Amino acid sequence: MHRFLLTPRWWGINVFVALGVPFCLFMGTWQLGRFEDRFDTHKEATSARPAEQTAAPLESLLPVDKQTSGRLASVSGEYADQLLVPERRLDGKSGFYVLTLLKTDTGKAVPVVRGWLPGTADASRAPAPPAGRVEVTGALQASENSTSKGVYSAGGLPAGQLGVIGAASLVNIVPYGLHDAWLTVQMPADGMTPVPAQAPANTGLDLKAFQNLGYTGEWFVFAAFVLFMWFRLYRREVETLRDTEAGILAEGEGEGEGEGEGEAGAGVGAATPAAERDPAEPAPAGTGSA
Predict the structure, then answer these.
(1) How far apart are CA 102 and CA 82, in angstroms?
(2) What do you get for the CA distance between the two ends of the chain, in Å?
């Protein structure tokens, strides 16, 4: 009865199922792994606060990646140019960052966000940086770009203001080399509010993370649907064969069922004896009476 599984049609169905189910399971597992990675990195970023970490030299943490982003970095040098970063929100309020370039012993400078102040960016309200040689400790952050959350990328800012914190946006403003990173001081002075470190890109429990979780469920559903359709086709084939063997269904009757019924009806009408017709009924055209 099950020899139909070896027919070319069923070979195609079986090969599709044999390849489709593992593929769906692989994709579902991959999406689940991506969600777990995001969850783990988010947990690591939020469980270890910068204030509880041991600072490492800045050079040892560069370039910034998922493991070093948010780590405390220490660097020595002298403060140079100071800029304001407008329209930055903190705790639901609008304000601005006070950013000062720190020229390190290597000759390169690193942007340091010394704190946040509420209101419109105003250079007269920004505290002047300490003079002379200083040692700065802050949470390491990757350079921003125009798509980073909260940045002002429209352009047209007045002199002394910066919309995006990064070497690419500072290279035409300052005449010295820059590290492709920035620091945010966690214990600012002069009454400024510390700017918290942000989790690395593509690591937080954001919409993308839950999209990965949703895709996981979809791929597993696809695998179950493929198996369900194979079983449904298999059961229908077996039932058809059983009905045929039992004489309930003539061989080939399942195909073109309406055509078979029409031929059967025509045969019955043609084979009806004259004796079985109603005498009052007119004889068919072309027949004579005995």
Answers:
(1) 9
(2) 54
- Which tokens go with 122? 């105003």
Separation CA 145–CA 153 (nearest Å): 8
What's the confidence (pLDDT) of residue 205? 59
pLDDT reported for residue 244: 80
Instruction: Specify the amino acid at residue 267.
Output: G
How far apart (Å, rounded) are the C-alpha atoms in residues 192 and 2? 79
> Which residue type does 98 have?
V
Do the Cβ atoms of 61 and 110 come closer than 8 Å? no
Q: What pLDDT does 288 receive?
A: 46
Cα separation of 113 and 84, whole Å? 9
Q: What totals of helices (H) and strands (E) does the chain contain, helices first?
A: 5, 6
Ramachandran region, residue 256 (left: φ > 0; alpha: ψ -120 to 50; beta: rest): left
Q: Helical H runs in the chain?
A: 8-47, 58-61, 167-170, 207-245, 257-271
3-state secondary structure of 46: helix
- Structure tokens given for 40: 């783990």
C-alpha distances in Å from residue 47, one per residue of 39, 52, 56, 121, 210: 12, 10, 19, 33, 20
Check residue 268 and give its pLDDT.
40
Question: 202: Cβ–Cβ under 8 A, 6 or more apart, which residues?
Answer: 38, 208
Q: Quote the pTM value.
A: 0.60
Instruction: Name the CA radius of gyration of the chain, rounded.
Output: 39
Task: Return the pLDDT at 25.
Answer: 96
How far apart are the C-alpha atoms of 42 and 230, rounded to whole Å? 41
**Residues of the chain predicted below pLDDT 50:** 255-277, 286-290
Residue that the structure tokens 């040892």 belong to: 60
Q: What is the pLDDT of residue 66?
A: 80
